[in-house]
Structure formats: C-alpha cells, structure tokens
Amino acid sequence: MRTVNKILYIIGSLDIGGSEQQLIKLAVGLDRSRFNPVVCCLSKHGALRDELTKHGVRVEIVSFRGLSFFRHLPRVLLQLGRLVLFIKRERPDIIHCILFWAYIIGTYAAKMAGVPIVIASRRGLGHFKANKPHDLFLERLANQMTDLIVANSEAVKEDVIREEKVEPSRIRVIHNGVDLSLYDVQPETALRTSLGIPERARVIGVVANLIHYKGHGFFLRACQEIKRKHPATKFLLIGEGPLRGELMALAKGLELESDVLFLGSRPDVPRLLALMDVVVLPSLEEGFPNAVLEAMAARKPVVASRVGGVPEAVVHGETGILVPPKDPAALAEAIRWLLEHPVEAARFGEAGRHRVAERFDLSTMVLQYEVVYERLVGEKCSDNVSKKHASGGTIS
Fold it and tell me: How many DSSP H helices and E strands does the chain contain?
C-alpha cells in the first residue's frame, strides 16, 4: 500500500496575495494518493479560504495574534504552546511554512511538537528586515532547525545565502507556476463597455496590490508621458491596498483621473488581461512575480523593472522589455515602443506564452514539490534506520 504523507502548511492568513495564491495551487494540485494537505492559518482565514475547502483541503486557524516577539514574550509563548498542541494533534510528516512569521513561529512549534521535517519558503527579497537585528536573529535561529529552504527564484536564493548565511546545499529553487488553461481567454466587448473603455482605445494594465514597493507612483508618472502621444489610452490598476487614496490623488494631480481605472481586487484577472495591449510591473523589488507569469500566459508583452527575480521570467527583447526601477521616462518609452510596434508586441506575447509553458507551468511546479517532499521523507527514514543499526537496535 502506498504511504500517504501529511503536509501541514502554515501561513499567516489566506488574504489575497501572490504567495497565498501559490500555496492554494500547490495544495490543490498535490497527488492525493500520496499527500494529504492541511492548511493552518496563524491569524485568520482570509478571502481565499473557500478556494481550498471546495477542493477538499481542510483549513484550520489558531488565532495567533500579532505581537512583538520580545516585548510580549509571555503571551507569545502561550500562543506558541497552543500551536504546538494543534500540531501534535495533527501529527504531520512535514510542516511547510510560508512567509516570515509563519516560518519563524512554525519552525519553533514544529520542533517542539516533534515533527520530523520542516521546510521554509522564501518568496521575496529580505529588504523588509533591514535595521531589524532581532528579526534576523530569530530567522537564523529558525534556520538551524529547518531541513530545507525553498526559494522561488535564483535571486531570492542568492539573497538568502548573502543575508542569512545559509549553505547553498540547503536551498532549493522552485519557481512559481501558472495554470495556462485559465488564460486562454478572448477579449470581451461587454466587459470593455462595462469599464467605459472606448472601442479603439489602447489599454495598459498593472496587476499588483497597492503597496509601496510595487511602484505604482512611477507608473502613473509614465502614464502622463504616454498620454501626450497616445491620448486615447486607458490605464487599469487591478489590486487593493493602503496606497489607494494616495495613488488616486496622484492620478488626479497628473490630470489622469478619467484615464486611470482603479478596479480593486478582481476575481476575473484573466478576462481583464485579455483586454490589455501591454502589461506593466513597475516594482522596486520582487522575488518572482506571479503577475508577470500571468501576463505572459495571456500572450501579453510585458514591461517590467529589472529587479530581483524578474529577469528570470522576462527575457529582455524576447518576451518583453526590462527597464530600471524608479524611472518613469524609461517605463513610458518602453510602453510607447510596444504600442507603436504591434507586430513585435504580438511576437513578444507569443514568446512569453511559450516560455511559461516550457518553464513555469503549474504541473511542473507541483511535481517539483512532490519530489522534494518524498526525498526528504525518504532521507529521514534512512537516517532513522541508520541510527537504529548504529545503536544495535532491531528493525521490525
């Protein structure tokens, strides 16, 4: 009989975000004859919970409240104990922690609960830890108890090696994956009309949460330049976040309020991508952006900042154009070039689709994780057998 390994994923919440969406795709995509996925949210469920439960993946919550690890240590330890008890009841073969506090708290709890294998995912660059020595201390301590770190790009792997002093042999790169079938969508006239986009208008879009490092402000300044040569162009911002009011005020100040559509979080991103002529990612930093892969899967040319893992997805001059970050003039020039060279833009889009199919397909990503999980379980079993032999014990 084939062994079914229980994988307990630990994450802060299931709010809408790239890492959360990748977790869902992974958990849902696992071969259930070999793996039993369970998701544990530390703080709350979030909007994406239903996507897991409808596919038969159980989601639990332990109500771990956000507290300073050192300033509220007694309460943190109490909540940590609750998590340990939960893990002991679940008895997973592997704990896989996603994002910073999950892989700090989850790793400590996993070891206290006696879980044999702990994996920690790194899904972005570590700039958020700058000038936070306590966070780095906690991270390095957790790393000593972690069996494997999975980075979602070579850029993230190099960042972990440099900043966390982790041996390269303890890091595995598995790029994000995309379900190509979701992006075989034709443009819909009714959707275009509902958004108030004229028939002949060109459409430029950004799919990213409205947060600082996504660089929306630089994009809006580029939009002002694009409007001078292409006045009929419309700009779509898909995503929600704390900078919404600030960005809307900036758009108004640039006299773009009638041209920039703030669409918020949308469940129909593939349909919106189908309307776009160019997809832009003006980020200041990135681990490995899902938005770029989705645009390429939708056969759209991409203009993106040359930061982090972006060049691992976008091949400059082949699937899109890479520009320096924080450079509205370079963004505008690249977007204008694609608008004015539709044949080349279409070629970029087709090349992008081919690249995603070849290197970043969802099934490939899931298979790579399955191989990692089974290898770690096999190695741990071999270690246990060796220890019993060395101690003179018998194997039943």
Answer: 15, 13
Q: What is the domain class of 180-359 according to CATH?
A: alpha beta
Which pLDDT band, with edges at 50, 70 and 90, does 134 fall under? confident
Q: What is the pLDDT of residue 75?
A: 74
In the chain, what is the greatest distance between 2 CA atoms, to the nearest angstrom? 81
SS3 state of residue 107 = helix
SS3 content of the chain, % helix, strand, coil (to 5): 50, 15, 35
pLDDT digits (tens, 9 = 90+) for 187-200: 999 999 999 999 99
**372's tokens:** 């990692």
The position carrying tokens 């669409």 is 263
Contact between residue 36 and residue 5 where contact means Cβ atoms under 8 Å apart? yes
* Per-residue pLDDT tens over the stretch 9-39: 999 999 888 899 999 999 999 999 999 999 9
Q: Quick one: pLDDT at residue 396?
A: 32
Strand positions, DSSP E, the chain: 5-11, 35-41, 58-61, 94-98, 117-122, 148-151, 171-173, 203-207, 234-238, 260-264, 278-281, 302-305, 320-323
What CATH number should be reported for the domain whose range is 5-177+361-390?
Answer: 3.40.50.2000
| Distance, first Cα to last Cα, the chain | 17
Q: What is the pLDDT of residue 346?
A: 98
Tokens at 225, concatenated: 């330049």
Q: 8 near 38, Cβ under 8 Å?
A: yes
Report the predicted TM-score, pTM, of the whole model to 2 decimal places. 0.90
Phi, psi of 271 (to 5 degrees): -65, -35
**Where are the domains positioned within the chain?**
5-177+361-390, 180-359
Q: Is the pLDDT of residue 290 over 60?
A: yes
* 3-state secondary structure (DSSP) of residue 386: helix
